[in-house]
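[step 3/7] inverse_fold.run input=structure_tokens len=296
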């Protein structure tokens, strides 16, 4: 789907707990015996994103929280808990359960709401996952090194910030684990996203490509061959500064693009991701030209 030029990512942040054994971590343990929960991390990321965007909690119309981790009392709505703790008292809380693709789908849903519902002007998307016991700082699986942490993004119809130009989502057949299924899905979302954004495969303005924070074998077998064969230009890979953040990889990639100023005005970035539930997506973002867009 191609979005209105006014749909923007006004802030994106990654929040990570202090590494176990660091001076800050040891000091925190003296004050708070338990490490931050997934909910605590989501709240911290949300507050950082709101500060960066210059937005108050009461201005949030929709809050979408996503996590693979259990958030205590199952009778409560985690998204509502995040909203209450950041003062987003008017925000409609919503959670998406789609595995590691949840945060990406939340961005997609948020953008659709901004385009179609005049009552929704500002959306906060948060993710948080604690993958392992507190003293490990993460965990591992067969395809990724997991990293405990949270991410958050503020989207709006203000026209300021990184433009969300287009996003394509695709689902493969349930249980299709063939060797070609993943690369075929990546190829589909990548080529369709380029078409919807009005970009040729060799457009020199495509300067960055971000991939999910998975292990090298997965990237080499599923993502990188398709990127190399499809993009005829010379985009640079966005360096991953964390391990796999569960639902938060896409938001973390957006945070790196903005925080490191990886795009010059007018340039585009692509963010690819997928999950074990056989859903895949490609986002196209653009750094606005100088002077474009309104500001709060």
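[step 3/7] decode complete -> sequence:
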């Amino acid at each position: 789907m191609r979005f209105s030029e006014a749909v923007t990512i006004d802030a994106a942040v990654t929040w990570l707990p202090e590494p176990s054994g660091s001076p800050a971590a040891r000091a925190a343990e003296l004050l708070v015996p338990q490490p931050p929960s997934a909910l605590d991390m989501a709240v911290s990321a949300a507050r950082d994103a709101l500060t960066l965007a210059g937005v108050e909690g009461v201005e949030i119309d929709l809050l979408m929280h996503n996590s693979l981790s259990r958030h205590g009392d199952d009778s409560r709505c985690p998204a509502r808990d995040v909203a209450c703790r950041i003062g987003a008292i008017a925000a409609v809380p919503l959670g998406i359960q789609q595995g590691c693709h949840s945060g990406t789908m939340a961005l997609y849903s948020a953008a659709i709401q901004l385009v179609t519902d005049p009552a929704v002007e500002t959306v906060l998307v948060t993710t948080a996952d604690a993958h392992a016991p507190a003293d490990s700082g993460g965990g591992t699986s067969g395809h990724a090194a997991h990293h405990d942490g949270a991410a958050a993004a503020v989207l709006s119809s203000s026209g300021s910030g990184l433009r969300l130009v287009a996003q394509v989502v695709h689902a493969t057949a349930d249980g299709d684990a063939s060797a070609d299924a993943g690369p075929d899905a990546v190829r589909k979302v990548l080529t369709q996203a380029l078409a919807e954004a009005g970009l040729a495969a060799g457009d020199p303005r495509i300067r960055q490509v971000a991939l999910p924070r998975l292990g090298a074998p997965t990237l080499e077998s599923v993502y990188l061959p398709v990127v190399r064969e499809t993009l005829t230009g010379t985009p640079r890979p966005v360096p991953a500064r964390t391990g796999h953040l569960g639902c938060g990889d896409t938001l973390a990639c957006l945070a790196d693009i903005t925080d490191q100023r990886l795009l010059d005005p007018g340039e585009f970035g692509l963010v690819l991701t997928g999950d074990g539930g056989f859903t895949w997506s490609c986002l196209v973002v653009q750094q606005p030209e100088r002077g474009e867009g309104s500001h709060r």
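[step 4/7] annotate
The helical segments are 23-31, 38-53, 78-86, 102-116, 181-197, 216-230, 249-259.
Residues 181-197 form the longest helix (17 residues).
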